[in-house]
Amino acid sequence: MPVPGSSSTRPGEYRSATEADETQLNRAITPKLLLLFIVGDILGGGIYALVGEVGGEVGGAIWAPFMLALVMAFITAASYAELVSKYPRAGGAALYVKKAFGNRFLAFMVAFAVMASGVTSAATLTTGFGSDYLKVFVDIEVVLAALGALLLISLVNLRGISESVKLNVGFTLVEITGLILIIVICAVAVLNGEAEPSRAFEFKQGDTPLGLILAGATLAFYALIGFEDSVNVAEETVDPRRTFPRTIFMGVGIAGAIYLLVTIGASMVVPTNGLANSSAPLLEVVRQGPLDIPIKVFSAIGLLALVNGALINMIMASRLLYGMSEERVLPGIFGRVLPGRRTPFVAIAFTTLLCAGLIIYGNLSQLANTTVLLLVIVFIFVNTSVLVLRRRDPVEHDHFKVPVFIPPIGIGISVALLTQIQPKVYLTGAILLAIGLALFAITFAYERRFGSGPPPSASEPADGSPPPDADDGPTPEGGEGPSAKRGQGPPSSRGPGPPLPPSPPAT
Fold it and tell me: Which residue blocks in 289-402 are alpha helix, DSSP H?
């Protein structure tokens, strides 16, 4: 039997395992369920709000930045495929960084960046909620509408994971239906001769096509994030070493194909200026398309898609904070639980206030780019970890190996994307990470003074009931317990920590 690094194993191929991976969790996620999870996790509210923003950057060839973003997603997915098949445990970027560099602080900052990206993503989607989709029903100031949506989401989050998950399932099915409707509308328009195919290949004047594609790719990449959440259910997946690599590639491919069809079709049906000037670009496709679909019906679909994405992001962020508190890398107060509901109310309150501040501070494009900034930095560490762990930890069990030249390409594309991000976005990202640094310093000082982390009892509710989601499965980035996620779908969390509740497949 060949081992990693042996000459009989070619990069990009699978090596069958001889022994089942040991875990205390139930391996109940089949390849089909995993595929549904990944596709559902990627497909989300971002596409409903950002098609016009990308069109404003690049011109009619909106699909081109999405294609580059898709390539980047495939490359990073390949690195995750190697790492999750090498370490088939619940975890994520922070776990891989800790194994690669052995640095607790670096692993914490990666986990906090993931958490912060969840908050900025929720701010993006709630800002999109106050767009033209809402104006079909009522004309409210964007910031007020976004804050109202955030308050509603936080109340659902506080009430409990069961209610959140039930809403997630229904909303996910609705938003996928909306994207299929857009594809059908565009196809009918093309067949009827009512579309302008050449427009989908036009670039905005004033820059080279490559420069325009790079400028639009940062926003386009926002719509493709979510595949990385799937690594958190590795311990609950049947034969993860073999299942994960092929399924993550299929999931990214299916979601990417849907996005390409939507963006190509939207550009053919609606003039670029019409998409760019609308805060509800897909609604313009419905308005100008040949099918008689009620505007209010599609507006409701768009609003539900945006709320769904924001809800899951806020669940992920609050549970990640709770989890890092349980791991004693954040103050114990974040582990406090609401009696009766068993939800981490301090973590929910903190992430809600942080999200509200971002809504007031930034616009749609800035918030989406901040999300991408934080995750691209995380993905640079993930791609680097693949190369470091190949040398430092050549494990004996069988796993998928990505071709050695792929992670460096991923790092290169990530750096190229970072050059397109505006200084104000970097400032926003730096402020968020500085908050994490300050919280880590407080916890570290407490530990140095008292010889241990925050009191373990911090996570125990006043009535003595068990901590939130105590009976649920795997953990987040770097922990052994459960998790929640960014997109739509089954259990997933993205950072060190707590037992997090499952959320059904759709992200």
Answer: 295-326, 345-361, 364-392
Rounded to whole angstroms, the Cα distance separating 173 from 163 reads 16
pLDDT tens digits, one per residue of 224-282? 887 877 666 666 677 777 788 888 899 899 989 999 999 999 999 999 999 999 888 99
Residue 66 CA to residue 377 CA, distance in Å, equals 19
User: Shortest CA distance to 444 belongs to which of 435, 453, 457, 436?
Assistant: 453
Q: In CATH, what number does 35-447 get?
A: 1.20.1740.10
Cα distance between residue 157 and residue 152, in whole Å? 9
Paired with 29 in beta bridges are 237
Enter the DSSP assignment of 397.
S
| Chain mean position to CA 495 | 13
Q: In whole angstroms, give the CA distance from residue 437 to residue 322.
A: 16
Tell me: pLDDT of 71 over 70.
Answer: yes
pLDDT bin (cut points 50, 70, 90) of residue 301 is: very high
If we measure between CA atoms, which residue out of 53, 104, 87, 10 comes closest to residue 218? 53
Considering only CA atoms, which of 375, 76, 73, 48 is closest in space to residue 224? 73
In degrees and rounded to multiples of 5, residue 495 shows phi and psi of -165, 180
Q: Please state, in angstroms and as integers, the Cα–Cα distance from residue 490 to each residue in 234, 410, 498, 503, following that order.
A: 12, 27, 16, 4
Cβ neighbours, 10 Å, residue 7: 6
Return the domain boundaries, the chain.
Answer: 35-447
Closest CA to 491 of 236, 211, 239, 302: 236
Which pTM was predicted?
A: 0.79
Q: What is the pLDDT of residues 285-294, one digit of tens each?
A: 999 999 999 9
CA distance 318 to 158: 10
Nearest-5° angle of CA 301, CA 305, CA 307? 115
The candidate with the shortest Cα–Cα distance to 340, out of 457, 463, 469, 470, is 463
CA triple 24-25-31, angle to 5 deg: 140
